[in-house]
Structures are given as structure tokens and as C-alpha cells.
Amino acid sequence: MSHHGPSRTARLLPRRRRKVIAAALVALAAIVTGGILWAWLAAEARPAGVVVMVPGDPEAERIGRAIEDGSSTLLSQARPNDPAARHATWSMALKERDATAWLCTRLEPWLLSRTTMTRLPPQLGAMAVRFEDDRIGLLLELRRGTADDSPRGEGRWFTLWFHARVVDRQLYLTVTGVSIGRLHVPVTSQSLAMALDPNHEASGPEERIVRAAIGSRGIKALAAADAVLSERNLSVSQLVLGAVPIGPAELRLPDGRQVLVDDVASADGVLTLRCRTVQAGR
Description:
The protein is α+β, with helices and mostly antiparallel strands. Helix content is 39%, strand content 27%.
């Protein structure tokens, strides 16, 4: 009759130490499981402080139109010209709530009048913005499931954080970070650009995390955005890297004057554009 003695580990380690190790392994497993659960819940949660505005809401519509009317008045306003400086300098400030109202109510008609789009991607739900110290957050909700008419504010939220700069009268945006729900994803600009390229097959772990979170509906929305950007020889991945300008940082007025944006600054919930109006012929 054979007899199986204690294992080598049991012979080398006292019973008390084995219990301590077993308890430590159980605690480690609990911590890992808890961390995964927390990350999942954070990714599913709506970002803190997001106020959902929808088209058709009377207050949001009023604010959106007021932003357009106020901006038009401010841009075209007659300004005293300093002969020494040869231009008039001024600034325009935009609050988060006002910018969010414009995005949710006026972005679609603005795009339809300037591109070949017929409507915004149906996968896109609510939108919002954040203006923090030297960075701008664009919050996008991707609707769940397959129903294009699902309620806004109930999908998964993504936040793209980017830095805006003006170089040689051109506006550049460089993405500096990304969040899913309330979870910040440690991803490089290069990996994010690849993950947001609908024609690229995700390979690295960072790309796979972002791509899995976006889902198939998100990829369709990115493809629609790329189709619109291609009209201007741009793509989502190029904008993420800040490799090309999104457009000129200037506007020509009907009377021949030009409004030049010299700087874009964000802090404490306010976006400030520092501008100068150049007289005709300058």
C-alpha cells in the first residue's frame, strides 16, 4: 500500500506561513477583481457634471441661436483702429453651457449647409464640452444597441481631450488624452490615431481597448466623419495627431476686413479667443 507524504512545498514551509501566503493570494485576487469591476463601472458611468441638451429643447435652442447671433455681431462690430498698431484687438469668451447648447442644436444645420452630409451619424447621441486649464474636452455619447432613436444620454460616453494652438493663421488641434465614461485610458496620441482610423486593423493593446469600447457602431460613426473630412483632404487620425490644421484661424467680413484669431485659451469653464480685426487692404 503506497503512502503519499506531504508535498515539497508543505515540507519546506511551516503551516502558519502557508496560511499567510494563501490569505495573501486571496486578497490579491479580490483586489484585482475589485479593480476590474471598478474600471468597468467607471467606463459605463456618465462623466461627472454632464448636462444633456437635445434638439428641440426651447432653452437650448434659444442659447444656440443667441451664440450665433452674438458671435456675428461681435465679429462685424466697428472697432476703433489704432494707426500705430494698424489693427484693433479684442477677445471673445464662450462658456461651457453655451457651447454645449450650440453643439446640440446648431451643429447639424451648420454642417449640412457646408458639407455633403444629409444628417449627423445616427450612432451619435448627446454632446458636451469641457474647458479646463489649457485643454478642451469634447464629450460624445455613442448610442447602445441598434436603435437609432434610442434616448440621448443613455449611451457610452467618450471624452477627447485636446490642445488648440494657432500657427501661421492656421488652427491646429492635438489630442492629448481620452476617457471612457469616468475612466481615463492611458493611450498615446499615435495609438489613439490608429484606433480611430476605421481603415486600420487594431493591433496593439491600447488600440484594442479603445476599439472595443467604441464598438461597431462607433466605427461606423468614425467612417462617416472620415467621409466628410475627406472633402477637405483630412481624416480623423490626422486631426488626432495635430499633423494638419483643421482650417484657417481667420474670417473675412463682407466689408473686406479680416478677423484673425491669434490665440485660443481655456480655463475655469471658459474658452477665450484673442482676436484682431485687420482693416481692408492691410
